[in-house]
Each structure stands twice: as C-alpha cells, then as structure tokens.
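Quick start: load a record and inspect it. Here is Probable phosphoketolase:
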Amino acid sequence: MTSTRTTANTTTSTWPDSPAQSPTEEELHRIHAWWRAANYLSVGQIYLKDNPLLRIPLQREHVKPRLLGHWGTTPGLTFLYAHANRAIRQRGLHAMYITGPGHGGPGLVAASYLEGTYSEVYPAVSPDEDGLKRLFTQFSFPGGIPSHVAPETPGSIHEGGELGYALSHAYGAMFDRPDQIAFTVVGDGEAETGPLATSWHSNKFTNPQQDGVVLPILHLNGYKIANPTVLARIGDEELEALMRGYGHTPLFFTGGFQDEDPMAAHERFAAVLDTALDQIAEIKQQAQADAAAGRETERPAWPMIIFRTPKGWTGPKTIDGQVTEGSWRSHQVPLASARDTEEHLADLDTWLRSYRPEELFDEEGHLLEDIAAAAPSELQRMSANPATNGGSVLIPLRLPDFRDHAVEVQHPGASVSEATRVLGGWLRDVVTENPENFRIFGPDETASNRLQSVYEVTDKQWNADFEPHDREEHLARSGRVMEVLSEHQCQGWLEGYLLTGRHGLFSSYEAFIHIVDSMVNQHAKWLKVTNELEWRRPIASLNYLLSSHVWRQDHNGFSHQDPGFIDHLVNKKAEIVRVYLPPDANTLLSTYDHCLRSRQYVNVVVAGKQPNPNWLSMDEAVVHCARGLGIWEWAGTEVDGEEPDVVLGCAGDIPTIETLAAAKILREAIPGLKVRVINVVDLMRLQEDTEHPHGLSPEDFDGLFGEDIPVIFAYHGYPWLIHRLAYRHDRSSRIHVRGYKEEGTTTTPFDMLMLNDSDRYHLVMDVIDRVEGLATRYAGLRQRMVDARLQARAHAYEHGEDPAHIAQWQWDDNADEAGDGAPAQAQDTGGDN
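Running the structure step on this input writes:
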C-alpha cells in the first residue's frame, strides 16, 4: 500500500462517556407516561377524526368511515423509542431511529409529535387539542399522510412501503458518522426476507474508528399478517446461536406477557439497553485509543437486542371472543367495525381510555411538561436529527476537472479506449478530493467494470478476517469502495448514505441490477414525495453505472443479457428519472460529472467497458452532452438546404458503431442518398417537452427527425421503449427501431447483434426497405447485405471469432490507429458476476 492511499478521516469524534445510571422510579414513571401518550396518539390516528381527548362520550361520528393502519407493531416501536430517549438524554447520544416494520407509522408520527418536531415542521398540527384533531384526522385520510413511516415523517430515512432494508439503510447511514448511533428495529416478518438476512453481515464492513454504530433490535411479536414468524418460533438457544454466528452479542428481553406489571418491564428493559450501550461505549473508546496510537481496531462483536413482546401490546386482549393481543388479529385494525357496531365502539372507547389521556394532556391539549421532559431537546431529538434530513447537511463534492482525463480524438474513430477505464481515472481523483463523503458501491465488480484506478488511492473496506495476501488485493479496515455480492445490500447502503447527506455511485453488471428493481422504485417514490415537502432539502442523486452490458455479454451468454432496467426506471416520475447512453469515453466523463453534481435524481448511465472507438473530442463531447442529442454532420451525407432522405438514429455505444458502419456502407453504395445521423445521449430527450423536463418540443423534434422522413433507430435496449418515449412525436409511425429482442447465447459480439437484427447490414436493409424508390433499384445491395450476414455467422461458427473486417472496423480506413490498438469489438475475457 502506498502513502498516497486515501481513506476516511480515522480520527474519531469522542464517543459520549457519561456513566450509565439505572433509571429512578420517577424516570420509569415518566417513560411509562410518555409511552402511554404515544400509544394513545397512535390508536387515535387509526380510528378518530374528532373528539381527540375524549372530552365527551365517544360517538360513531367521531370515528373515521375508512379504518386504515397497522396497530400490531406500533406499541413495541413506541416502547423502544421511549427508552432510546432516556439513553440519549443521559448519555448525550446523537441518534436516529430506523423502523423496519414501516407500517408502524402511527407510532413514529406520535413520537415526533410528542417531541415537538412535528408541530415545528407542520405548524397547523399544533401541540394543542386542535392540533391533535388534525393529527388524528390526517392519518390514512384523503389529502393527509400515509399509514407507514414515510418522507412526511420527521426523522425518517426509511420508507415503510417494503420490508427488508432496515439494517442496510442503517449501516449506510452510519458510514463516516463516527459520533452517531442508529437504533434500528428489525421486524420479525422483515427478518424472513433475503435482503435482511444478508444485511446482518454489514458488521463485517464497518470500521469502529471512522463509522457510527448500528444497534439492531430484533422485534419478535410473533406474527405477520396472518401467519407466525419463523424467528419467533425457534428457541432462544437456537436464536442466540444464529445471532452469534452473524457476529453479534445478543441480549434478550421478554416483556408484556401474563399481565406483567409494565413498570417491571420498563425497569428490566432499561437494564438491557444500558448493557448494550455500555458495550458500545467500550468498543468506541477502544477504537479511539487505537486511532490515537495509530493502530487498527479488530472487528468487535457488536451488541444486538432480541426484543420479544406481544403483537398489539396494550390493545384489546380479545375481540368478539377471539384472542387479539399476541395474535395476528392485531396486525392492522383490530376493531374494524368501530363505526358500525355498538359493541366495537364500546371496545374502542375502553381501549382509548385505558391510556388515561386526562393524566397526559392538560385542558388545552398540551402534553404535560413533566412527561414531555422524557424526550431530549433540540437537535438531540431523533425526529430532529439533521442527518435524517440529509440535504440540510450535504456538503457538495469537490470534483476535479474531468477535461483533464480527456481522450485525444484527432478525428472520429481514430483512437480506441475502454470508456469505463477512462472514467475510473477520474473517479480516482474524485475519491482523493472527497475522502469522507464519497463512496463507490458494487457487487464484486469494481475491477471487472474497469474502475480499478480507484485502488491507487483507496481500498475496499473489509473487517472480516484477513489472509496474508489480502493487502495486495486492496482489502483494508478502511476504504472508499464497498463490495459485497448482494445488489440489495449495495443499494441499501448507498441509499442510507445518500439520505443522510453524502454522495456515491453504484456500479453493476447491467443484467443483474434488476435485482434492486423494487428498491429503486421505493427510493424514486421517496424523492418524488420529498420534492413536495419544502422542509426536506435536496439530497445527492442516486447514480448508477451499468457496464458489462447486453451487447458485450456474448461470452457469459443469455442469462447475462438484459437491458430492461431502463424500462423499469422510466415508469417513475419524469422529474426524478434520467437515463444516459454516452457513446464514448469523453461523453461518459462529461455525463458522470453532471450526475455527481445533480440532486434529487435517479441517474442511470450505461457504458461499455470493452475497447471501442472514440468519436468526439472533449469540447465536442461537452456540447453534445449539454444538448442531449445532436446531428453528427461528419457521419451523414445530407446537403444543407435539402431535406434528408432518411434519418439514422442511435443511442448506446454499440448501436452507435453499427449505425456509423451502416452509414458508411450507404455512403459508398448509394452515393446520392441523403443520410442524416443523430446520436442520442440523454434518452429522455425523445419524449415531448410536456412529458419530461428534458423532452423536445414538437418543432424541435420535427426539425431533427423530419415530419414524414423514415427514421431507422438503433437502440441499446428493448426497441419498444423508443416507440413509447417518442409516440407523441411519431404521429405517422415512421420510426422503425432495432434493439434487443430477447435473442442471445454464448457467441461472438457481432453474432449477438445479428441474432437481434441490430447489426449494420440489417440497418442498411431497413433503409432500402423504407426509403421510397430504393427497394427495386437496390435489390442487389440488399441481397449482398443478406449474404454478408450469412458469411459473418459462418465465419464465427467456424473460427470462434468475428471476421477481421468487422472486429477491426474503423470509420475512416485511413485513420491513425492511435490508442491501445485493440480492436473496436474485442471480446471480454473477464470473469462472471
């Protein structure tokens, strides 16, 4: 390892070392009162739209007509929140609260309201009786807020719409936050998901010196919607062995069963939590001592808590003679007929009054000061932690000038580069300039995708065991590259990192990024909602770099050939999604500089890692990327002042090569044909401007593509996406698209193109077929194109490689063979995923 290697600042912030003190009886009563208040507000949100403090007898008209929400997990969440608050106040912790059981939304809204944060963010929901009425009415109500922990909830960074990502988000949030802790509740239903099972291993990728702390709390309440949960139905010995196997020190708590005195439960859990936090303090103090002495810290067995309580704790024990508390029946709305039957209305009244709201709120509806004192103040409130509103603490990246990494292009196609390798050189400098707030995430593919230049200045963070040769493989206790063979984990880490005010990118093979389809869906929805919340500040964009793409997965075969992630993303809101297909190294540099500067987007960049021609100088690339698309006049044969006969459009590095090769054939074989070549970098430019901020006006589109001129478009992905994007412009259905159509195998690069009819010869045939007057006059040329395809396939099947005139094709036969001299379509010899 060299002296220039860059890591995060390993000088840890001082971890609070206030001595732990068992709670006094007064403190326990205050915690219990705060918990009762949170539970009362939670039940009120699910059921009530009026009479928030039960000043008058409960009537049917006080109950919402549609009862929506989730009660079962909520009382456990509020219990844990109340105890976390005590620890924060006593120890001076900087904490956030992440809830895997995201449908416990009423509990987290209640907590932020009791802390005062909710009213600060939403002044109309004031800390009085009128505010309580608004708080209750808005929940799961038209024009109100969702039933889960959502962007609208202060202190939240974890969308409750999907399960499985609590721990990965928490660890991502704690990277490079050495003085922070994330109390992270894992639901026992969530614990059955694959992503969550993998995310327990995040403790092998954290550094006690530079990173913060995740305290996992496995909440075993026994049931999902209608079935028991696996981890709640195995013995403590087996469960302890599982958690120790994951590298944790488990601490157990069981409470709320057999009519236990709640004060006894509070006292016992306070002791468990203090034990966990004492262990954490010892680990952090050792890390600080190691850092001061210049030593590395060995991976500790971080504590975690196994928290077993009844589902629907403190709710009705039975309803209509059936067990409810401690059963799946408490999962959502236990008293579903509270508005419709006198029996359920009476049960609801009894339930609400069991929390004794008259002891919690004064005549004006204010929370009593003594109870409010259970929560921390100011920025130590978990609902007000600045890091949970990541844009408020975002520090812009210091980006080196990407032009310094430009590839020389004396004329189009003269030099050859691996575009992502060129980008890797620039990312190396980005890492150097931003050692504490930029990370690269990927599933074991940083080097495979040619970004290995970053290892000149940083390492892959790794805190499992080391072998003697690992240093040579760039493994270290601290590093800016995070690799684990789980796309879910990489996505979750990066989301947590971004949501708390940092920057990064996710590099992956194109075919396997689909694994995170639902995760990016949730993140895009988060961004869409936060755009509508003035108090949520913009965060850094979620940036993808997809390489090892469909057209260069001929060696790995059909399973590795899928460009459909783009199709999935463009379903999201137009103000969120951006898709870029840079055709060469210089356009990739310009594109990624833009992406790392952007905010509130999901940026998808697809770029090949194989040697390909460079088409544009850096100055030309910057202009081309700023436009998003443009006419390459040097490639076409149109005449100024005259309308072209055909437009050849392209998007993607390999489609660009094939389009230019087809244009060259047409130039030589049909000299009088007026051909216009248009390259598209920003795919969203093809939409109409009424549909996407980057879209073209009808006038601009017609100016580029004509009004009734045939357009032959070679596209990187599934061809129907181009039709979908351009349908408002393509009134006469004159755009004909070639792309990937689910044909592939282990074969040569050019045969892959031929299997999908996206090769240069087929593009020439398309022009002959669609330009009026060419079909008869150039039937011989068309036949030669058919024959050329047959000959190319025969050569590939006999020799195992493409013919030299294809593999080594250049735009200009007299071009200077600058660069590394590799053929433009060299085959990949890299490893599998």
